[in-house]
Amino acid sequence: MRTHTTVDSPVGPLTLVAADGVLSGLYMTDQRHRPGEESFGERDGLAFGPVLEQLAAYFAGELTEFDLPLSFAGTPFQQTVWTALCDIRFGEIVTYAELARRIGRPTASRAVGLANGKNPISIIVPCHRVIGSSGGLTGYGGGLDRKRHLLDFERAGVPGAARAVPAGLW
Predict the structure, then answer these.
(1) Which ranges carry the Methylguanine DNA methyltransferase ribonuclease-like domain (predicted)?
(2) Which whole number is the average pLDDT over 11-19?
């Protein structure tokens, strides 16, 4: 059974989707690869208490690591990439090439980028923390302005992070 709710956030409305009570989607408005609303199930805000609490704490700067059960629907390769995204710490950035190396597929940076773009659980599965090898903010399903906002927000919450970011990133 699928249920959903919508919540306001600093990056705009977020639609949360659960499959059998487990978070399976977090979508922004106008997000690339966002499924049709008819697939979200019935509206039920009560089913998302812990998710809402952790998102509120994250956006308040009080939470740097989510601890929620997640349900990924994707290919085994996509699931590997999405799981590896969860290992990127708050305020850390990595390149698509580095993420490919981390999953043991050093020549698969393009495939990693495609899987990253289809991440169904934005923010909580931090695909925004992946950048291009040149240091540019290449691609983000929620739009580059949102990616920049999330990275700046996280960078501000990590002591010394502003000094650690290479010049010209964003």
Answers:
(1) 4-71
(2) 94
